[in-house]
Write a structure and sequence with these properties.
The complex is a heterodimer of chains A (110) and B (115). Chain A is an all-beta fold and 110 residues long. Chain A contains no helices and 11 strands. Classes of the chains: A mainly beta (110), B mainly beta (115).
Chain lengths: 110, 115
């Protein structure tokens, strides 16, 4: 079955501490993986995608096919990183049926 | 560009009533996607529409739910005879082309509460 699992509903870290938001997936083909973020009172927006291999706002995510994971990491959390983060996958080229995880709320404490 | 606009933000209906959710895609976007987020769950794909066409409605419940994207005006997600289980956040997204490698732009969602 196709599934995205985000095991943590809430993650609290102190400002300056490293952050890792976990995401595991189950998919039989070659998916594309994404991280979406929703800041307070704002819309869901794309943070990064694995095919771009980029760092956005200091966040990176590496696709580990062996562990079927796509964890989101940042070495030093900032207060403005506090938001809801969703991991998502799509079935690769030609599909729009994104499958989302249940989300992790990140709280960065001063 | 105001982005994807959804209204209303909150909609309260009694069981048996009809709910109409509207979505205006971003300017220049002709592809619209509806997602539903039930409590404690992730967003789930419902339907994909282009202007005047339903491309894929495989995620939509077979009964009571319908969607349209007319030539003029917003996309409408319609739920007839709502039940408590329909209470959820409904998100609309749009893209310029089919979301092969296009990112989706999301609206703020409509929170439907069925009493």
């Amino acid at each position: 079955a196709q599934r995205v699992t985000q095991p943590e509903k809430l993650l609290s870290v102190f400002k300056g501490a490293p952050v890792e938001l976990k995401c595991n997936y189950s998919y039989s083909g070659s998916p594309e993986l994404f991280w979406y973020v929703q800041y307070s009172r704002q819309r869901l927006q794309l943070l990064l995608r694995h095919i771009s291999r980029e760092s956005i706002k200091g966040f990176t995510a590496d696709l580990n096919k062996g562990e079927t994971s796509f964890h989101l990491k940042k070495p030093f959390a900032q207060e403005e990183d506090s938001a809801m983060y969703y991991c998502a996958l799509s079935g690769g080229s030609g599909t729009y049926k994104y499958i989302f995880g249940t989300g992790t709320r990140l709280k960065v404490l001063a | 560009n105001a982005g994807v606009m959804q209204n209303p933000r909150h909609l309260v209906r009694r069981r048996g009533q009809e709910a109409r959710l509207r979505c205006s895609p971003m300017k220049g976007h002709s592809h619209v996607y509806w997602y539903r987020q039930l409590p404690e769950e992730g967003l789930k794909f419902m339907v994909y529409l282009q202007k005047e066409n339903i491309i894929d409605e495989s995620g939509m419940p077979k009964e009571r739910f319908s969607a349209e994207f007319p030539k003029e005006g917003p996309s409408i997600l319609r739920i007839q005879q709502v039940v408590r289980g329909d209470s959820a956040a409904y998100f609309c997204a749009s893209s310029r082309d089919s979301a092969t490698n296009e990112k989706l732009f999301f609206g703020s969602g409509t929170q439907l509460s069925v009493l």
